[in-house]
């Protein structure tokens, strides 16, 4: 997610199923209109502090994060109180009645979350939430990552990634490195939409050189 600090004009971000816990890198994305963060490690609704300064944000998907807590009503009211410009939250349209009720039932967030370091580098709140949750099976993570990547490729009129090829990568890497590579791939594919013909030619030339370098390295190893 740190790449977003260098993408102030990005409009749509899909970071579902990525282990994200910190939304600070998003606070400068002033053109952001849609943000998908389903099933991450966001421990506190205080992270909404970083989204309050985004004037164009209209769609947010935050469900299945620890910050949603045991009370769905309180969660939704707090999000809408702090982000009253939302038109859709967790794939459900926002109504005028909800926005009015949020002023009563929601909690206003006025400061960023406190981050107290622990041995593993997470905040204490995130660590405790993670400890209380169950780990997702690798097959489910693979399925979700593949779904997100193929969705992006379909939008670009590209062929979807074959499941057998996708699985072969994951069998050679750790879950973390596999997800990280797929996140980078999804980000690159999304950014390609913003390029003109000249930009795409530069990408094509760069990819060709990289492939040649990999092929040369493989031949040397053999």
UniProtKB/TrEMBL annotation:
<dbReference type="GO" id="GO:0097733">
    <property type="term" value="C:photoreceptor cell cilium"/>
</dbReference>
<comment type="function">
    <text>Plays a role in cilia formation and/or maintenance. Plays a role in the regulation of cell morphology and cytoskeletal organization. Involved in DNA damage repair.</text>
</comment>
<comment type="subunit">
    <text>Found in a complex with CFAP410, NEK1 and SPATA7. Interacts with NEK1.</text>
</comment>
<feature type="compositionally biased region" description="Low complexity">
    <location>
        <begin position="123"/>
        <end position="136"/>
    </location>
</feature>
<dbReference type="InterPro" id="IPR032675">
    <property type="entry name" value="LRR_dom_sf"/>
</dbReference>
<feature type="domain" description="U2A'/phosphoprotein 32 family A C-terminal">
    <location>
        <begin position="72"/>
        <end position="90"/>
    </location>
</feature>
<dbReference type="GO" id="GO:0036064">
    <property type="term" value="C:ciliary basal body"/>
</dbReference>
<keyword id="KW-0433">Leucine-rich repeat</keyword>
<dbReference type="InterPro" id="IPR003603">
    <property type="entry name" value="U2A'_phosphoprotein32A_C"/>
</dbReference>
<dbReference type="InterPro" id="IPR001611">
    <property type="entry name" value="Leu-rich_rpt"/>
</dbReference>
<dbReference type="InterPro" id="IPR025875">
    <property type="entry name" value="Leu-rich_rpt_4"/>
</dbReference>
<dbReference type="GO" id="GO:0007010">
    <property type="term" value="P:cytoskeleton organization"/>
</dbReference>
<feature type="region of interest" description="Disordered">
    <location>
        <begin position="115"/>
        <end position="139"/>
    </location>
</feature>
<keyword id="KW-0677">Repeat</keyword>
<protein>
    <recommendedName>
        <fullName>Cilia- and flagella-associated protein 410</fullName>
    </recommendedName>
</protein>
<dbReference type="Pfam" id="PF12799">
    <property type="entry name" value="LRR_4"/>
</dbReference>
